[in-house]
Specification:
Layout (H helix, E strand, L loop, with lengths): L3 E4 H23 L1 H14 L1 H16 L5 E13 L8 E8 L12 H11 L1 H4 L16 H16 L5 E5 L7 H15 L3 E4 L1 H7 E3 L5 E3 L2 E8 L11 H11 L4 E3 L2 H6 L2 H7 L2 H7 L3 H8 L5 E3 L7 H9 L5 E5 L8 E2 H10 L8 E5 L6 E7 L2 E20 L2 E16 L13 E3 L1 E4 L3
Helix pairs in contact: 2-3, 6-7, 8-9, 14-15
């Protein structure tokens, strides 16, 4: 109903490092030997990671026709305040490298909140403060992401080529996605076509020069809003279609290498100072990024994990989260579920997971409107920053900040996103104190 408080310093800190985080991921995605070595043990126990690595291998053997790659990513953060006496600290949850959602609907919420605050200023602002200081910051995510896609399309160089959006059958988040269709056509005269991987197995074709055509139309960008979960590949047809796209001249958003760079095992390896320095040679930049990393531990019989596993089980995993190699929400294990899993998984089976320190979030009062009724709850929020990066081989063509996203949920909910009906779209009011 109203914007949620976020410390201005935390908001600006995440915004400041966003482009550095994205550039680091670009270097990681280019280093496929690093990706293979980092994910080798997880792939032995996780079939989905193994297939993604096989897709990378197969595409490289066939020959990658397009050196350009577009990434539309979102880095997500939470405030960490383990005790009431400690100052809140911003920690990174993850960086979403495929199907980073809600740049469109999320940028509508600040407009709604600004209207509510202005409309009811007399009732809300009894302390005489300036209304403008209680408004959410302007959020240009929707326009910025669309303009970045248009810039990549222009770089492809065929004005009447289409953008192909790869979607899930029966997509529940179509309203956020449809805005791309309207905006790309209205702002840039670019047509968007929606197809599932199953559809593409039947209608996608690659010419001898690598040109991708779908139903006869040339494709400039293959933009994935699917493909991040094993459920998106129920048969070999979907994997075959993904390989066809990967080996075409269309600009992928993302490539499979970019997708692999977002897996949890890679996140854990990058948190090691020596590894981070390899991809972020500027010491000050690396230090600023590492300040945002939560505790991350490798698991498995090759990781000497006995001490941390015993500690987590004894703690009932109240201070830890067990994470598989997945994006998309709803995959993590918490507290009793995590402790039970660690108790029964063999050391080898644990390779498929990492352990992350639990982020203890400060709560705030929030009025949630569902079914026309407002309910007061204790809530926590997750802050994300979108970015768009176009690379041509090792060179970065552009690297842009593209607005933000705030999602809020009840403090009692562990996991689950907006599409799952747990979290809600929100916007921040920036506060000068913690």
């Amino acid at each position: 109903l109203l914007p949620s408080p976020v410390p201005r310093a935390a908001f600006e800190e995440a915004q400041r490092v966003n482009q550095s985080m994205h550039a680091m991921k670009q270097r990681v995605a280019r280093d496929t030997a690093f990706l293979r070595s980092s994910l080798a043990s997880a792939a032995e126990e996780d079939a989905f990671t193994r297939r993604l690595l096989q897709l990378l291998d197969d595409s490289e053997k066939r020959g990658i026709r397009q050196p350009m790659a577009l990434s539309i990513a979102r880095a997500d953060y939470m405030l960490h305040q383990p005790t009431q006496d400690s100052a809140p600290r911003l920690l990174q949850v993850e960086m979403n490298m495929i199907s980073a959602a809600f740049s469109n609907l999320g940028s509508k919420t600040p407009l709604q909140h600004a209207h509510v605050v202005r409309r009811h200023a007399r009732q809300l602002l009894r302390d005489g403060c300036d209304v403008e200081t209680r408004l959410p910051p302007i959020n240009t995510a929707s326009v910025d992401v669309v303009d970045a896609m248009a810039a990549a399309h222009a770089r492809y160089g065929v004005p009447d080529a289409v953008v192909l959006m790869i979607v899930q059958p029966g997509e529940r988040n179509a309203l956020d996605q449809r805005v791309f269709e309207h905006s790309l056509l209205a702002r840039h005269k670019i047509v968007v076509r929606r197809r599932s991987l199953a559809d593409l197995h039947k209608v996608a074709a690659v010419a001898d020069d690598g040109t991708l055509r779908v139903d006869g139309e040339e494709v400039a960008i293959a933009y994935y809003r699917a493909g991040y979960t094993p459920r998106d590949y129920p048969t070999e047809d979907e994997w075959s279609a993904r390989l066809v796209l990967e080996c075409s001249r269309a600009i992928k958003c993302p490539t499979v290498a970019w997708q692999l760079s977002g897996l949890k095992k890679v996140q854990q390896v990058l948190a090691q100072p020596a590894v981070l320095a390899r991809f972020v040679p500027d010491a000050a930049e690396a230090a600023a990024m590492s300040e945002l990393f939560a505790g991350l531990w490798a698991l498995g019989d090759d990781a000497d994990d006995a001490d941390i596993v015993a500690k987590a089980i004894a703690d009932g995993c109240r201070s830890y989260v067990l994470k598989p190699q997945r994006e998309g929400g709803g995959n993590n294990l918490y507290e009793a579920d995590a402790a039970a899993a660690l108790s029964v998984l063999s050391a080898r089976e644990r390779r498929a997971y990492i352990l992350m320190s639990r982020i203890v979030q400060p709560t705030h009062t929030c009025y949630v409107v569902r079914g026309g009724r407002a309910t007061r709850i204790a809530a926590v929020s997750e802050l994300g920053f979108f970015g768009a990066l176009l690379a041509d081989g090792d060179d970065i063509v552009f690297n842009r900040n593209c607005g933000y996203l705030l999602r809020t949920k009840a403090a009692s909910d562990n996991d689950g996103g907006v599409a799952a009906g747990v979290a809600i779209l929100d916007s921040p009011v920036l506060t000068e104190s913690n």
